[in-house]
Structures
1.
Amino acid sequence: MALTSRPRGTNDVIPGEIELWLELEEKIRNVCHAYGYTEIRTPMFEHTELFQRGIGDTTDIVEKEMYTFVDRGERSLTLRPEGTAPLVRAYIENNLGSGSLPVKLFYYGPMFRYERPQAGRYRQFTQFGVEALGSADPLLDVEAIALPIELYRSCGLSGFEVQLNSIGCPECRPAYREKLIEYFTPHIDSLCKSCQSRLHRNPLRLLDCKVEGCQRIIQDAPAITEFLCSDCSTHFEQVRIHLDDLNIAYKLNPRLVRGFDYYTRTVFEVVSSELGSQNAIGAGGRYDGLIEEVGGKPTPAVGYAVGVDRLLLALKSQDKLQVALKGPNLYLAHFGGDTKRKAAQIAHALRGMGLWIELDYADRSVKAQMKAANRLASQYVLVIGDEELASNEAIVRNMTDGQEQSVRLDELEQLSKILGACAK
């Protein structure tokens, strides 16, 4: 094991890259604010059973991908592989549904899945998600689609498509389940091992299989929309009406089922034409039974999650979300000794006003310090020598246009205004 290599499936976000992340995070917070979603932060690990019961024990995540460990108290814990189940647990435990409904929350943070690393897909990845809990209104389904679309558009992203389906409810799904078993049984020898093991346990999972041989069989499988009960049909019709009213384009995909067992009725996915076969940049749906499943009162809910790593990859492929790297507000050059002490005092005071200030720590020549200021793209430079120290006055130079102004070293409010910021 090389100590200088990061673990497989992880990624370093280094200077020059982190600025893109921060810019995207700001856009996420802005669009969530516009839709009335407030932030929630849950622990990075939860009791394993929360994911087994919430996500479903026949899903790939629970069967193959969770990072699970036993702590010193002999408790089975799991690093969170997704954000919805922990949010639902927090909603119940903190009695967040006691006020007005729906409760609209968003989360942003690291998730963990042991899967094969690919471009934009890591074992530790960042996920952003929104959840609206406490209402069955189809308009909330649509808002959960409209919100990320607004985010993508604010980033300048193009070439994405919304795919939409309904997977029914516990009332109408059993008949479809039996129809799927009937359809796939004659093909069982041609299915992959995972599909063979799931055929009778959870046949809907077969529709989500990406194995090429299974895909050919799935193409002719019956569509669930032919089995929807009247309530689910009406709900899905209202979702489509609202999408049309908002001019949100979508494509009906009768094979779309999503990878978690907690979904009911509406499911949707946003795919990008820039990412090849692994093209999803977000997905979600309604999960009206999950809150009750993990111990709460029956509560309808709907949500959406975005893989931030994959979204950034799509944005980079289109040269979107470019951030101009800014340099320091001021570089303080000095001659060492007392002039260095004065520079340190000024830097400390200006940093307290929220300004980015740099100075030399290696006692280099002023010429070398000026080169360093240029490399850093400092907006201004101020040189403190013995004469400046004696007169308590120095010249601050704008490095863009070369203009110079005289400033007193004991009147830093004046200097902060020149640098373009107000004191705290």
2.
Amino acid sequence: MAKMWAGVTAGKTDPTADDFNSSIRFDRRMFRQDITGSIAHATMLSAKGILSEADCSALTEGLTGILEDLEAGTQEIDGSCEDIHMFVEQVLTERIGEVGKKLHTARSRNDQVALDLRMYLRDECDGISGQIRGLLKVLTDLAEENKSSIMPGYTHLQRAQPVSFGHYMMAYASMLLRDLDRIADCRKRMNISPIGCCALAGTTYDTDRHLEAELLGFEGVCPNSMDGVSDRDFAVELLSALSILMMHLSRLSEELILWASWEFRFITLSDAYTTGSSIMPQKRNADMAELVRGKTGRVYGDLMGLLTVLKGLPLAYNKDMQEDKEGVFDACDTVKMSLTVLTPMLQTMQVNAENMLHAAQEGFINATDLADYLVRKGMPFRSAYKISGQLVALCMKEGTVLEHLPLSRYREYSELFEADLYNAIDLKTCMEKRSSEGGTSVASVEKQIAAVRVILEGYSE
């Protein structure tokens, strides 16, 4: 088959080189964007008198038919074509004849592929954002249900201070809200049309780039034709946002893995999201969470791969840029699958509030509140800190906890201790006292939940 670019060359390449050069095995997924963009291009050419209305009608009808057949599965994509653009143009010409060859007027594959990729990734941004909002809803529901469930908060993976499980969930909700913002911000810069930049220098035809951009839902056009075809920073930016998102999902997955272990038993994951062992019948492995954690490195690799491809490229388009797609497609697919699994995993897990409370009671996580009690009685903080540490050491030696230590033992360390001390170091009191904005008290967590729900409701309006 003669290449559509045959002219000054014979258009014949070695079969191995042909396969090496081809991108249709992965860019075929952009067929909707390619055809939609071509319909808009034909419409613009007709509006400017570059194509007749009859030619525009024939092109539009032909392209619409190809799209319908591809979506219905009655038209197969020919893998021998170099890319999706050549495939569509080839089938169009076969169906409507010579008029099909007019479609490529005033454009190049360079601006065409940049257009397709922007449109495709724009759709991916919308889809992934929708999934993030779904996970946010699950996290806020979990937070609402567990706003009073006491658990140990950790620093250095050591029990530190009492928090609620709801507060813990809202920490991840806060992270995901920023992920939503990053993707929306990325989409904003992505939503600029490169079509009409042509190969690199624009075109001699009297085109209307703004009309074509408007038809395709873009907010504007790339102001420089060389930049429009030769940069992929929008893809890099999306990969960066997705890498940060996966980092958050990985951290959450790590928590789930730990909490589901026999040592913690803070949660029980549904059988639908765990696996067993081939030789150890007692095992319930959190494989899905482990895979989310593992696949995070894959998305990081996609980001580094594209950065490396682009770092030394001179302007304008270079074939190296064909390497932009597989990485960003893989990252989008990985993120979507991770969210598809993680969201119902959280939705169906059982929260073991009693086990969390028991862990909190054993961890001396009210030691800071013990010191604060003495400070409120007039003792300098450093002196109160020392006494609290001595009392913790005493409890550890005698196998008890601060709540159970008799008042008489407390008074051996300071006459400031009185009976009201036990209310001050009660874990519920300790948690509720942390009522500062963003803190772990029930009222504070309720405010956090309400704020996220208002944001989510804004998306549905």
